[in-house]
Amino acid sequence: MFRRSKRWIGWAALLAVLAAASLLLPAVRPLAAPGREPHPACQPPPDPGGPGSQAPAGDPGPGGPASDPELPFAAEPPAPLPHAPYVPAAKGRVALVVDTARRQLTLLVNGFPHRTWPVAVGKSNTPSPQGLWQVVRKDKGWGKGFGTRWLGLNVPWGIYGIHGTNKPGSIGSRASGGCIRMRNRDIEELYEWVPLGTPVWIIGQPVRPGRRLVPGHTGADVLAVQKRLREKGFYNGPLDGRYGPGTEEAVRRLQREHRLPVTGTVDERVYRILGLLP
User: Is 42 among the catalytic positions?
Assistant: First the structure.
């Protein structure tokens, strides 16, 4: 009985975090023009900062769109779940929680778990974007390899979504370019229950700083740096997770003020000044 109460308390705490963090959500916007195919494997498209520039491989750095709460989830993922029996349609306020550590997606209805499915998540060098997002696009058959349904998310530095797959054997593993893969029969079921604007909370292993950031990089660590630079008055550009000229100039201003070498790159000293390292 105690373990069951503890589990519901954990979900109640998550709901409170979702409600508070929803105030920070970016404005809902289309991710692509009608008919546009997503970037292959859901990897972020080339950064507009320069010809052919690409986001480097690696795990995201510090922070993200919202801080990761402590949740009562196991650190080690269990074996992929079998297909669950029929569950009545979801009726009420819905939200999604993707746990990349356990490789599971849980549908919450009015704050309580309604259904859980096994999923595939991003590989270590193409991680799924942690944070609080929204479903901003729904499509059927959005391209080869993306299965029968597509739920697009408003991640600002690339095209990411929850979708089906033509590789069902990958479910339960780290196999994607950052998107969340589901079995086609599972995403078809979920698709009918999820309206536009549904919050999607992607959690997992805590993101840690360490990556040296240079112009052209994208990711949650860039977004965290932009947010701290804005809080300290160095940056007034968009919080888009892209290390462009505006972010570089803000870093240079911080470095000049703190009498550091003015390189325009984020290293350990800049992380510490921004409070992203102890």
Answer: no
* Catalytic option among 42, 83, 114, 163: 163
254-to-181, 221, 225, 262 alpha-carbon distances in Å: 40, 17, 12, 9
* 57 CB-near residues (< 8 Å, 6+ apart): 125, 126
According to DSSP, the residues that pair with 163 across neighbouring strands are: 150, 181
The pTM assigned to this predicted structure is 0.63
- Written as one letter, the residue type at 86 is Y
| CATH code for position 147 | 2.40.440.10
Domains held by the chain: number: 2
Residue ending a domain, among 144, 177, 203, is 203
DSSP calls for 133-182:
EEEEEEEES-STTS-SEEEEE--TTS-EEEE--S-GGGTTSEEESSSEE-
pLDDT per residue as tens digits for the range 176-219: 999 999 999 999 999 999 999 999 989 886 556 678 999 999 88
Query: Pick the catalytic residue: 39, 83, 114, 179?
Result: 179
> Residue 179 catalytic?
yes
Task: Give the whole-angstrom CA distance, residue 150 versus residue 139.
Answer: 5
